[in-house]
Design a protein that fits this description.
The chain is α+β, with helices and mostly antiparallel strands. The chain has one domain: Cathepsin B, Chain A (Alpha-Beta Complex), CATH 3.90.70. About 35% of the residues lie in helices and about 20% in strands. It has eight helices and six strands, in the order H-H-H-H-H-H-E-H-E-E-E-E-H-E. It has helices at about 5-15, 25-30, 35-45, 50-60, 65-75, 95-105, 115-125, 175-180, and strands at about 110-115, 135-145, 150-160, 160-165, 175, 185-195. It has a six-stranded antiparallel sheet with strand order 1-6-2-3-4-5, sandwiched between helices. The radius of gyration is 16 Å and the shape is globular.
């Protein structure tokens, strides 16, 4: 199976965190919270981890749940706060309890890489690894955004032996990995690998 990277990038482009309130993400947050447009726009600034997580899951056909449904479920399960969409620090994405619940509720398993060097070795390998399809992959990359704003999540993928990122924020769509990612800002990479 080869990935449709145009479809992937369209999912990301439609969910830009910093539009003028006219994109799909704003409307999805209004429905999923539920809330008005002003509140949805406030949530958008902090929704990167949740929306990239959903994009990967939806793109890989591990769910047919629309983002507004996923967002609503995240609020109901206390994975994110309805007030601002920030992750609930006691029960957020990627902690052990979430991973256990996620596996059970969504029937998807994931793998993670916590070292920049290990990620580069895994990503550039010519042999097929768990999580790759025909030497291509799609996953979620967590990076240090800045000392002021903490961390940020982007979609990372390999296409035609090149690494790329696509960002729901300001870094762009289909941008060279090396332009923004390095050993100093890399935190971890996760990829959903199978339906259970």
């Amino acid at each position: 199976m080869s990935y449709d990277f145009v479809e992937l990038n369209n999912l990301i482009r439609d969910r830009n965190q910093y539009p003028n309130g006219s994109n799909l993400l704003t409307r999805e947050l209004m429905i999923g919270t539920p809330c008005g447009k002003e509140h949805a726009l406030q949530q958008q600034a902090s929704v990167c981890k949740e929306v990239t997580f959903w994009i990967e899951m939806f793109f890989k056909k591990f769910t047919n749940m629309l983002f507004e449904q996923f967002h609503s479920r995240c609020i109901q399960n206390n994975w994110v706060r309805a007030t601002d969409a920030y992750l609930n620090l006691a029960y957020g994405f990627y902690n052990d309890k979430f991973k256990d619940d996620f596996s059970q509720k969504f029937n998807v398993s994931a793998m993670g890489i916590n070292s920049f060097t290990a990620f580069i070795d895994w990503a550039k390998s010519e042999s097929e690894f768990v999580g790759k399809s025909e030497n291509e992959f799609v996953g979620t990359l967590r990076i240090v955004n800045s000392k002021k704003t903490g961390s940020h999540s982007v979609i990372c993928y390999k296409q035609d032996n090149q690494l790329y990122i696509s960002d729901t924020s300001t870094r762009g769509i289909g941008v060279s990995f090396e332009k923004f990612i390095n050993k100093d800002n890399f935190q971890y990479f996760t990829t959903m690998i199978t339906r259970m």
